[in-house]
Amino acid sequence: MSVENPILRGFHPDPCLCRAQGRYYLATSTFQWLPGVSLYASDDLMRWESVGGALAGLDLRGVPDSAGVWAPDLTYDDATGRFWLTYTVCRQIDGIFKDVANYVVTAERIEGPWSEPVFVNASGFDPGLYHEDGRHYVVNPQWDPRPLPGHHRFNGLIMQEFSLEEGLIGGARVVLGNDDAVNWLREGPHVMRRDGWYYIACAEGGTGRRHRIRMARSRELWGPYEVCPEPLVCSWCAETPLRKAGHGNFVEGPGGQWYVCHLTSRYLPRRDGSPHVFDEREDGLSPLGRETALLPVVWIDGWPRLASGGIAPVPDIGAGGNCHHDKRPRHQCQVFRFGPEGGLGRLWREEWLAPRVVDPARMTLSENGLVLAGGDSPSSLFDRSALVRRVTSFSWHAEATLSFSPAHYGQSAGLICEYDSRAFVYLSLGWDEEARTRVIDVLTCDNGAFAMPLGNAARVRVPDAAREVTLAVDVRAYDLTLSYALDGAALEPVRGQNGAPLVLDASTMSDEHVDGWAYTGTVVGMTCVDCFDKTARATFSRFFYADDEGDDA
C-alpha cells in the first residue's frame, strides 16, 4: 500500500526539500515557535525522522502571532560542501508595512552546528537561494508599502547575487513580475535548473483557500521568464481532502522520479456529517494548520505536471509515482519521561517547541523531570515558560503529570492546548486563597474573550497529601473534554457547574476561526505561569500524546 499525504501531519507549513550526501532533507516554518526551523531527514522521501531544529537561540520576544520565522529555504551547495538555510524574521505584519529581515546560516551537517546568521536583505520575505558555479543568488518578493494608485505591495520577484563575505553584489533585478498573477500575490520563490532550463516555482493567491504553485522558466538565469498558464498545484474548487495546496519546491527522488513538496490543510468534518462543498463558498475549519504533502510529477514539454493528472493534490503518493510502502499506523502513541540526558537539544529532536525565546534558566532537565520556572501568561508575546508539540490528528489525547506547590492565585502550571495567544484552553493546577488549597481550574480564550467555565464552585480541590497531579485533554473533532487524576489514580472527568462533564469547542483553535493573521496550528503541552513573584517552579515527570488517524476526515 502506498503512503498517504500529508507526509508531515500537523503544523508544518512552507516546506522546502533538498537532496544532499545521499539523503533527503526537509525544512518547515515555525513562526513564533522555537527552534525557528524544524528539520527532518529521510532515505526514501516517505519515512521522515526529526533531526532537531535550527535557530533555537533566536529571540522572538514581542513578535506578533504568526510573525517570527517565515518560509525557510534549505539548499546544499556542492562547491562549499555545506547546507545553506535562508529565512525571514518578521517582526511586524499589520498595516501597510512588513518589517522583515532575511538571513542565511550554513552548516556542514544538517544537525549543525550552524554558523552565526548573516544578514541578506530586507526588501521582502520568503527568500530563496540558488547556487551555480560557486556563486549564489537570492530571489524574493519585493515589498512596496506605498499607498499610491498603481502600486501593488507584491512588486515582483527580484534576484541579486550574494556572498557571505561581501553581502549583496550588483543590482537587484525583477525576474518575474505580477502583471499576470492571480491576486498579485507571488511569494515563496525557489529556483532550480533542469535540462538547460531555469525554473522558478512560486506561491500565488495568498496562503488560504486560493493558494497554488505557479511555474516559470527561462534559458537564462536572469530571464526573461515564461509563465506556465496553468498552476502546477491548486485545491480551489477541487474535490480533494487536501485544501489550500501551494508553496513548494522540487526534488529528484529514487529511480529518477521527481516530486513536488508543498503545504496543504485538511478540514474538520462538518458538524452535521454532511460532505464539504468545495466551491467558492468553501468554509471549512483547519485546526491542524498547514501540513506538508508530497506529490510525484512528470515532465511534459519541459513543464512539470502532477503524475496523477490535473492540478488537484491527491492523498495517495503512489498515484503516478514509484514509491510504495506500508501506511503509517493508525494509532500513534508517544510517552515522554523527562530526565537530564541529552539536554535541551534532545527536546528539539523530539519535536518539542517553545514560544519566542528559550531561556535555560527557566527550562531545565533534572533527575525528577522537566522543571519550568514561572513565566508570563498564555496571552503574553514575551517571556512565557512553555514546551509544546504539534497536534497531528482531529482525534487525540494528551496527558501531563506534574508536581507543583503554588502559593498565590497568580501562580499556576499545567496542560495547555493552544492555537496562539488569542485562542487556548488551559487546564491548570493553581491556588485558591480563600479555601487555602490547591485547585484544578480551566481558563479559556476565544479570540481574546476569556472565561473560567468552572466558576468557583466546580473547581477541583486537591488535597495537601497529593504529590503528583495528572491533567489530560481529549479531542474528538469538535468536542474537547478534560480530566485529572491524583497520584496515579484513574482519570476522572472535569465537570462543569451543572455537574456534567465539561465539553468545550476544539474548533475555536483553527486557522479560520482565529481573527487576523493565523498561519500556525494547534499545539498541546506544558506551561508554568507566575504573575506574582516569579518564584514558582513546576516539575513535569511525564507527558503522553496519542492520536487516532482513523478518525480523520
Can you describe what's shown?
There is one protein chain. The chain has 553 residues and is mainly beta. It contains 1 helix and 39 strands. It has one helix spanning 343-349; strands spanning 16-20, 23-29, 33-34, 37-42, 49-54, 68-77, 82-92, 99-107, 118-121, 128-132, 135-143, 154-163, 167-176, 187-194, 197-204, 212-218, 226-227, 233-234, 243-252, 258-265, 291-300, 303-306, 331-337, 354-355, 363-366, 369-373, 385-390, 395-404, 411-420, 423-432, 437-446, 449-451, 460-462, 469-476, 479-486, 492-493, 503-505, 523-530, 537-548. It starts with 15 loop residues before the first strand and ends in a 5-residue tail after the last strand.
Could you name the key traits of this structure?
Jelly Rolls, 553 residues, nine-stranded antiparallel beta sheet, mainly beta
List the helices and strands and how they pair.
Blueprint: E1 16-20, E2 23-29, E3 33-34, E4 37-42, E5 49-54, E6 68-77, E7 82-92, E8 99-107, E9 118-121, E10 128-132, E11 135-143, E12 154-163, E13 167-176, E14 187-194, E15 197-204, E16 212-218, E17 226-227, E18 233-234, E19 243-252, E20 258-265, E21 291-300, E22 303-306, E23 331-337, H1 343-349, E24 354-355, E25 363-366, E26 369-373, E27 385-390, E28 395-404, E29 411-420, E30 423-432, E31 437-446, E32 449-451, E33 460-462, E34 469-476, E35 479-486, E36 492-493, E37 503-505, E38 523-530, E39 537-548
Antiparallel strand pairs: 1-2, 2-4, 3-24, 4-5, 6-7, 7-8, 8-9, 10-11, 11-12, 12-13, 14-15, 15-16, 16-17, 16-18, 19-20, 20-21, 21-22, 23-39, 25-26, 26-39, 27-38, 28-34, 28-39, 29-30, 29-38, 30-31, 31-32, 31-33, 34-35, 35-36, 35-37
